[in-house]
């Protein structure tokens, strides 16, 4: 093979192109690997105490890039309608919401639960006794929860939830709890 000036320039250009492609591809692969490692390392834990039953649960509900099915099943049991023991699937985004609010408040996600899932019968009974219970409450769908956050006053908890503009936020000052749900962002006081 004879090395002409033209051939040297072509080979040099090809080598430079391959080198540049390799240099550009390396950081992209490294960044992808780092992002994957961060996702795998991501874990969300929550501590819930049902004030009506006394049951407590501390669970890792999200690990890596997926929800933990066993933990969600345990959360469903804890958040059941304590009046008749009926259960309903709980929206995993509700746990995300609780976790995010606690992080935003700068505390561990340790919540006292006043109300989780409500059966249609319970919701109807509560509506008869109070005008503050929605006919189509998201509690009926496992998408709402009434809570207190350990170490955080309820007015502050409501404020931190409002900052997130993530879902429904109801502050019940006299009853001393905050309603959070995964519906559209809206706010009210009870």
Mean pLDDT: 84
H/E element sequence: HEEEHHEHEHEEE
**Chain oligomer state:** single chain
Radius of gyration: 26 Å
**Beta-strand percentage?**
15-25%
Low-confidence stretches: 12-40
Tally the beta strands: 8
Instruction: Return the structural class.
Output: alpha+beta
What count of helical segments does DSSP give? 5
What can you tell me about this protein's structure?
This protein has helices spanning 5-41, 69-78, 92-105, 120-129, 154-164, and strands spanning 43-50, 56-63, 66-67, 110-115, 144-149, 168-172, 177-181, 186-189. The chain has 190 residues and is of the alpha+beta class. It has an eight-stranded mixed sheet with strand order 3-2-1-4-5-7-6-8. A hairpin with a 4-residue loop joins strand 6 and strand 7. The longest helix is centred in the N-terminal third of the chain and has 37 residues, at 5-41.
Concise structural overview:
The chain is an alpha+beta fold and 190 residues long. It has helices spanning 5-41, 69-78, 92-105, 120-129, 154-164; strands at residues 43-50, 56-63, 66-67, 110-115, 144-149, 168-172, 177-181, 186-189.
Jot down its keywords.
single chain; 190 residues; alpha+beta; eight-stranded mixed beta sheet; 5 helices; 8 strands
Write the layout of secondary structure elements.
Layout: H1 5-41, E1 43-50, E2 56-63, E3 66-67, H2 69-78, H3 92-105, E4 110-115, H4 120-129, E5 144-149, H5 154-164, E6 168-172, E7 177-181, E8 186-189
Parallel strand pairs: 1-4, 6-8
Antiparallel strand pairs: 1-2, 2-3, 4-5, 5-7, 6-7
